[in-house]
Every structure is written in C-alpha cells, then in structure tokens.
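WARN no homologs supplied; continuing
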Amino acid sequence: VQAPNKLYGTGINLSGLNLLNLSDWTWEANKNWVIETANRGDIIRFISDPADLRNIYRNGINGEKTTTGLEVAVLDSLGFDWNPTLHQFIKN
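OK structure emitted
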C-alpha cells in the first residue's frame, strides 16, 4: 500500500518509510515486525516520543505499557538505545 503523497508505504519499502498496517493486528505480529525491522538494520523512528512516559505507560507514570512502551522494551532487549539528537533508535 502506498500513500498518495508517497511519504510512506507498508511492508518493505526500500529507501522509504515502512509502516505496519494489518487489519488483524496482534501484539505478536507487531513484535515480530519490530524484530525483523531491527534485524534488517532499518532506521527506527517513532511518531510518539519514547522519552515521554505518557507514551510508554497507560497511566503516564508506570505499570501497564502502551504499544509504544512494548516496542521500546523489545528494542531495548535487542540492544538499541533512543538517540534524541537523531530522533531514532541506534544499535549500541
């Protein structure tokens, strides 16, 4: 799927922006997509600021994580760190 303005596509979009867009979304599919993205060496950016706890936890403080929070946890487990200067996750 390609957006009319050609800024993004779903699936593998070499030299473009890859978005996960599933009609039957599950956390497991999302997690696998994040892992595959990291393993391919794609640049990983988030729309939601991962440094803002309101994007990480449902109550904005702690406890149950949002999807963004779960994605950050996966990237952390794969050895990625958030680089606010570059606005992306970098493999350490």
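The first strand starts at residue 9 and ends at 10.
OK
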